[in-house]
Amino acid sequence: MADKPSRALVLYGDGLARFVDPSNTHIHSLASVANCGFLSLPHAPPESEKERVVREFAHLLDASEAYTIATGLKAKESENEISTLAERFMGLKAALVTDCSTLSSFGKLIGLDVLQLSEICHKSDSSPSDATASKLLRLLGFEGGKCLDVSLYDSVFVHMGVDEHKDLRTGNNVGVIDSLIGSIMRMAQPGSEIVSRLHLSVVLSYGSVTDKDVSVFSVKTLQEGVNPAFAGLVPRQSYTMRGEKTRDDVRDYCPMLVAQWQHAVTRKDLVDTLSFEALKKLCGNLVIPADRFIHEVAFKLWKAPKYGA
Question: Residue 272 sits in which domain range?
Fold first, then answer.
């Protein structure tokens, strides 16, 4: 545990997990020093792509209740019935950086300050990833290699979809995120003021899934050698439970991939690449529900009690 509260930067690659390849060296370098795992999502109802984007982001922030009210899936209440992140997490100051208009509206509904991704990303600079990284870190009170006493935000969530600001070489945003991670890690070198306070999370989802994905990206496994007749005796995994109740809608395939790093604070596991196969074999966090992610982050900011062991 750090001796001061951390400040969190979350880079969320919406639908980008399937595009990561060996050339994304900064993503894999981060995974090799981070604590990695899966974030399980529930089964999706029939929905549009825009609805999926908002629903999955809502799960990351444990704001599904707000989503059901906002979309009319539940009888609409007044907006006063929707708790903001600040109300739920001890005054947490958080911002969402995105160019997705529907996600912007939802972010405001749950109390996030919304900033335009297009205004943060400067493609005309000689080193756009360094300029973008500096701007994001400045929002968290990191400037010129120093950690300021006061920051605009405790946490900043950066949302990048498949089509927004895509890297022309790859056709998606994986290259953009990869370069951004490289810049952030260079600025947060061991010994700097930044590295002792920055909690960095990279989350990559699969986006809309297909029937083929069900078998290729499955996290549902039985203990080796267990006779199928006794499969029912194998204890339920914790990600399938909420308290003492079973989560009946758990999707056992296409979880989000997550790598979390803070120097001298987070544990390092055996993962060396941020891929489904590597995480399934070697990750330290295994599988947790996506709606527990914000609780893990808020704990590092001293805004929530510890979730899990």
Answer: 7-300
Which is nearest to 27 in space by CA: 153, 134, 160, 154? Answer: 160
Q: Can you give the CATH number for the domain in which 95 is found?
A: 3.40.720.10
Q: Could you tell me if residue 56 is inside a domain?
A: yes
Tally of residues, the chain: 309
CA geometry: angle at 176 spanning 260 and 212, to 5°?
75
Are β-strands 142-143 and 146-147 bridged in parallel, bridged antiparallel, or unpaired?
antiparallel
Rounded to whole angstroms, the Cα distance separating 306 from 309 reads 8
**Ramachandran class of 6: left when φ > 0, alpha when ψ lies in -120 to 50, beta otherwise:** beta
Amino acid in the structure at residue 190: P
Query: Is residue 202 in some structural domain?
Result: yes
pTM value is: 0.90
Q: What angle do CA 135, 112, 54 make, to 5 degrees?
A: 105
DSSP single-letter state for residue 253? B
| pLDDT one-digit tens code per residue, 67-94 | 988 887 665 555 557 899 999 999 999 9
Task: For residue 119, count other CB atoms closer than 10 A to its CB.
Answer: 10
- 2 assigned to some structural domain: no
Asked whether residue 307 is assigned to any structural domain, the reply reads no
Asked if 257 and 2 count as a contact pair (C-beta separation under 8 A), the reply is no
